[in-house]
Design brief:
Layout: H1 10-17, E1 20-21, H2 27-48, H3 50-53, H4 69-92, E2 95-96, H5 98-116, H6 120-142, H7 146-151
Helix pairs in contact: 2-4, 2-5, 4-5, 4-6, 5-6
Length: 155
Amino acid sequence: MTDLFAPDSPSEADHFDDEETVRPGPFWRHALWVVGVIAAAVGAGWVTSLFRIGFEEYGLPPAAPGALWPYLAAWAAIGLAVAAVLRVTAAKVPVYAPGRIAAGLTYLGTRLSLGWRPDPPLVGAMAATALIAAAVWCAIALRPHRAEAETGSEV
C-alpha cells in the first residue's frame, strides 16, 4: 500500500524533503506562485484581524478609524515585490523556504496595518523593512557555502 505513494527513486525522495532547492520553470509558473502566496498571506492577515476591525452592525467598534482597502492594496503590492525578489533568487540558487518568508512578511505587515492603521510614512518604513529582510534572506542564499570551500568540493 505504501509503495503506491513512495517515490520511484532515492533522488526524488531527496527532492521532496529538501526545502532548499532551485525552482526553475516558465515565467507564468513563477508569477502564479507569487500571486498565490501573496493572496493567501493578505487574506490570512485580513481574517486574523477581523476582531480588531470590528463590525458596527454587531456592536464591535473598530480599534482604529480609517478605511481598510488602502492597507490591503498596499500590502498586496508590497507582498508581490517581496515574493518576486525571493522567487527570482530561488529560480537561480537554492533559497530556503521562500514561500514561507514571503507569506510571513506579508502576513505580519497586513495584520499590523489593519489592526493599527498607521500613517503612510510608517507603512513605507514597514515596506522597506520587509524588502530589506527579503534581500538579506536572498543574500544569505547567494553566499558561498563554507563547508564546500573547506572540503574543496566546489560546485
